Amino acid sequence: MKNNFKNEDLKASIYRTYPSLVRDLHFNLYAKENIREALVISNRKLDVEEGIDQLIQFNNVFYGVSFFTDTRRAYTGNGKKISRHSPFEDVKYIEFPVNFEGTVKCGSFFLYGKTELNQITTIL
Predict the structure, then answer these.
(1) Rounded to whole angstroms, how far apart are CA atoms 97 and 90?
(2) DSSP 70
(3) Would you write out the chain's pLDDT as a tens digit for each of its 124 residues?
(4) Domain boundaries along the sequence of the chain
(5) Is 31 within 8 Å of 120 (Cβ atoms)?
(6) pTM exceeds 0.85, yes or no
(7) Does residue 69 contact residue 78 with C-beta atoms inside 8 Å?
(8) CA 113, CA 104: separation in Å to the nearest integer?
(9) If we measure between CA atoms, which residue out of 90, 63, 68, 100 comes closest to residue 81?
(10) What distance in Å separates the CA atoms of residue 75 and residue 78, rounded to the nearest whole number?
(11) Distance in angstroms (rounded) separating the CA atoms of residues 27 and 113
């Protein structure tokens, strides 16, 4: 099978992916430290095979969170990601688009922080 990517397209995709991975990893650790009454789980299998960036168990309810930036491209990608997986019956899915206005900036990275944590805990 031949791919139709140009080198520039692949490079652009990698430049978008790396900050996203850093954001997800950072927020998963941040949530584990700050939502003490919940079990926060994140791993490669959940992400790649099930389309769940973060699984939170709170009051015996499971929430599957999907993080993505509030852009047209991200909504398209998230829609494709969702359609690739069969949803679990006992998980409430949360699509969590993030607009970087007012978020934490560390160097050239935008990170999810207290604002996003408060939004997630409000949903729980």
Answers:
(1) 22
(2) S
(3) 456 666 777 777 777 788 888 888 999 999 999 998 999 999 989 988 888 999 999 999 999 998 887 767 666 666 666 666 678 899 999 988 877 776 777 787 788 889 889 999 999 8
(4) 7-123
(5) yes
(6) no
(7) no
(8) 6
(9) 68
(10) 5
(11) 7
